[in-house]
Amino acid sequence: MAKMDQTANSTTATKGGHRMNQIATIAPPATVALALPEDIDFEAWVNLGRGIVTQRRQADWLMADWFAHGTKHFADREQVQLMLVQMGVDQKRIAADAKVAERIPEGWRSDKVSFEVAKEISKIDDPAIRQRMIVQAEREHWTSRKAHHHVVEHKAATGSLLPEDDDETRQAVELIRCWNRISPEAREYAYALMEIAAGKNYAPIDEDEAA
After folding, report:
1. Looking at CB atoms within 10 Å, which of 131, 166, 198, 204 has the fewest?
2. CB 101 within 8 A of CB 65
3. d(Cα 96, Cα 103) in Å, to the nearest integer?
4. pLDDT tens for each residue of 77-87
5. C-alpha to C-alpha distance for 70 and 91, rounded to whole angstroms
6. Where are the alpha helices (DSSP H) in the chain?
7. Nearest Cα to 150, choosing from 174, 103, 118?
């Protein structure tokens, strides 16, 4: 059987008295994949990874800035929503990301601080403290979890921990209020179970295993 390729049947045409073969090429479907040579060395592999991480972080900021601009300049919300659906973009998430872009201006950003870390820091109301945290996050290589802990500690210290401004905070508030109602003995027991859950990447507590 003849080997198949990605070209259509050839047709013949004439131009200036000469015969020409016209080959219509069928474009393959777009795919996203990274082909690496088998003999790539470790240093080159690491440098490639760093470049990909940087590109991803830049893309998050570009998307956030793009949508923040759109919400300011285009008043047709229905058309914007339809566009997001067609693009497969989560409207709630991109709107939240746009708020991050507004609260963390371009001059504060660093390719060494992920968008997820900046999103946590953006929950701080005081702009000066947000800026200081961004600098600290870059210096200390914060993860999003570490940034979250710093933000929670700051809010607890300033008495602003409990405003129910998002789903995660509302759930945390419910947990705190339940914690405050139970006895010290129950707290001690629950704390031991939560430590187990934390060691499993904060997985749900298995009641049968805990019994």
Report:
1. 204
2. yes
3. 11
4. 888 889 999 99
5. 13
6. 42-73, 77-87, 91-103, 115-121, 127-140, 144-158, 167-181, 184-199, 207-210
7. 118
- With contact defined as beta carbons under 8 Å apart, do 95 and 122 qualify? no
Q: What is the pLDDT of residue 168?
A: 73
Distance CA 129, CA 135 (A): 10
**Alpha carbons 153 and 135: distance in angstroms, whole number:** 17
| The token pair that represents 161 in the structure block | 């921990």
Say how far residue 40 (Cα) sits from the centre of its chain.
29
Which residue is it, tokens 């998307």? 63
* C-beta of residue 130 within 8 angstroms of C-beta of residue 124: yes
In whole numbers, what is the pLDDT of the chain averaged over residues?
Answer: 82
Q: How far is CA 87 from CA 95, 100, 129, in A?
A: 15, 21, 36
| Confidence band for 164, pLDDT divided at 50, 70 and 90 | low
At 211, the pLDDT band (50, 70, 90 cuts) reads: low
pLDDT band at 16 (very low <50, low <70, confident <90, very high): very low
Cβ pair 21, 10 in contact under 8 A: yes
Please, are residues 163 and 169 in contact by the beta-carbon 8 Å criterion?
Answer: yes
Alpha carbon 134 to chain centroid distance?
17
Cα gap 205→200, rounded to integer Å? 9
